[in-house]
UniProtKB/TrEMBL annotation:
Pfam families for this protein: Cupin_2 (PF07883)
SUPFAM superfamilies (alphabetical): RmlC-like cupins
Alphabetized InterPro entries for the sequence: Cupin_2, RmlC-like_jellyroll, RmlC_Cupin_sf
Superkingdom of source: Bacteria
Domain Cupin type-2: 50-106
Name of this chain's protein: Cupin
Amino acid sequence: MITNLFRDFPAAAQNGNAETFEALLTQPNLHIERIVSTGQASPPDFWYCQTQGEWVLVLQGSAGLQLEGETQERHMQVGDFVEIPAGCRHRVNWTDRKGPTVWLAVHYGAIPVSTI
């Protein structure tokens, strides 16, 4: 069980092998997770498009977030957050390669059963 967002990263995150997603709280229509990125980005020409809304906050590190229809990438730094409405296509262009980027993501609305 995670009790501190800045400790006890999964081995894949510690090694920089993979981005990790860990559930912190799951309730009907609510899913809160810690995401640890270590230089990962969305694949070229890939866009996420989720059936639920997402509010995401950068707790450590930095990242480049692109929302469809916006001409400028959002340079996300510690303390920056954004709401991504359901159905809004978005992608992560880059994450910090100097250290982990720790995100707090709150998914709300119709949460897919596979996530719970």
